[in-house]
Amino acid sequence: MSAVTRKLSHIEHAQAQQAHVTTPFKAIRLRHCALPEVDLNAVDLSANCLNHVLSAPLFISSMTGGPHLASRINQHLAEAARELGLAMGVGSQRIALESDDHAGLTHSVRTAIGDQPLFANLGAITASQLADIRCIERILAPLDADALILHFNPMQEALQDHGDRNWNGVLKACEAICRWSPIPVIAKEVGFGFDHQSAKALLDVGIQIIDVAGTGGTQFAAIEQTLAQQSATQELGDLFSDWGYSTPECLIELKQLDPITLWASGGIQSGLDVAKALALGATLCGLGGRLLGPALESTDAVVAALQQIMYELKLSCFGVGVARSDALEYTHIWSTGSLKNLKYSASSIPD
Question: Which range marks the domain in which residue 243 is found?
């Protein structure tokens, strides 16, 4: 299966999954304030992102960067981000790096988003295989990128026919990229979540932001299982279908790596989910699959979906009695349900 065909299949199956998504934030309950002393209409959602001020602590998470269909999707997403004053990450730019085909990820995306923050995106395993890391400039320049996302997808690759299974040297490559990169480097998982040890190692080599991207959103293991042409691969997909950590679990564990800048994506479906993620320590929240359907439709559809999420976040802030979304903190959480006993023990992690 070609890379372009695989990307098209990812879009198709990711869209189909949205009908069955259950938010991993359901177990978490925020405290209700019966006397909020807050004007709902005046709740301030503004947030800082890489020296930019966003209208809300939201970014459009990386979705697709391969097929030509990405051109329409990314155009709608970028125009919506510009209209609402939000940030955006593009999908994987591997195809653009390996060929002359930028597949929708050209300067037109920067034109569409204007001055809003825009993030380039490359697989960490792909970056580790480059003969010269300076060629990454080929994917940064067309976007005039404000940051570079390195995405980590070892289990997706392992469950994929002919995926990359040798991950030796990836951390060393990340360190070299962080030293070279003229812009901040972000580490992002793809739906399995970051563990404490891996996050710490990445921070130690210069990664500035961790986007936990836990389970609960697009299930790439399930997609790769569907696409698999070998019965053995399909069986492995079944066996490992619940592998990884949910986004709330990642936030609870990684927040103990202080100081750390955490972004939350993976299963965020509403403004209430955003409020819960912020209370758990995230500074920005990413929406991917939730916006894929609207992005296939129009810019206006994306704008409408994001405005609904922003209003839900305002209502959540009002409900707990805070006038600013950046005032949400762990004390606003009433219960973490089944996650209440999740605690990181330093003695359990090898040096």
Answer: 3-343
* Residue 307's CATH number: 3.20.20.70
Confidence of residue 351 (pLDDT cuts 50, 70, 90): very low
Report the alpha-carbon distance of residue 32 to residue 71 in Å, rounded.
43
CA distances from 312 to 99, 230, 264, 265, 315 (A): 42, 44, 17, 17, 5
Q: How far is CA 115 from the centre of its chain?
A: 21
Degrees (nearest 5) of the Cα angle 19, 20, 26? Answer: 120
Residue showing tokens 């679990």? 249
Domain total in the chain: 1
pLDDT above 70: residue 98? yes
pLDDT digits (tens, 9 = 90+) for 43-71: 999 999 999 999 999 999 988 655 566 78
Question: For residue 171, is it within any domain?
Answer: yes
pTM for this predicted structure: 0.88
Task: Write the CB contacts of 304 (distance below 8 Å, at least 6 apart in sequence).
Answer: 294
HEC sequence for the chain: CCHHHHHHHHHHHHHHHHHHCCCCCCCCEECCCCCCCCCHHHCECCEEECCEEECCCEEECCCCCCCCHHHHHHHHHHHHHHHHCCEEECCCCHHHHHCCCCCCCCHHHHHHHCCCCEEEEEEHHHHHCCCCHHHHHHHHHHHCCCEEEEEECHHHHHCCCCCCCCCCCHHHHHHHHHHHCCCCEEEEECCCCCCHHHHHHHHHCCCCEEECCCECCCCHHHHHHHHCCCHHHHHHHHHCCCCCCEHHHHHHHHCCCCCCCEEECCCCCCHHHHHHHHHCCCCEEEECHHHHHHHHHCHHHHHHHHHHHHHHHHHHHHHHCCCEHHHCCHHHEEECHHHCCCCCCHHHCCC
Inside any domain, residue 350: no
Does residue 164 sit within a domain? yes
Q: Does residue 316 lie within any of the structural domains?
A: yes
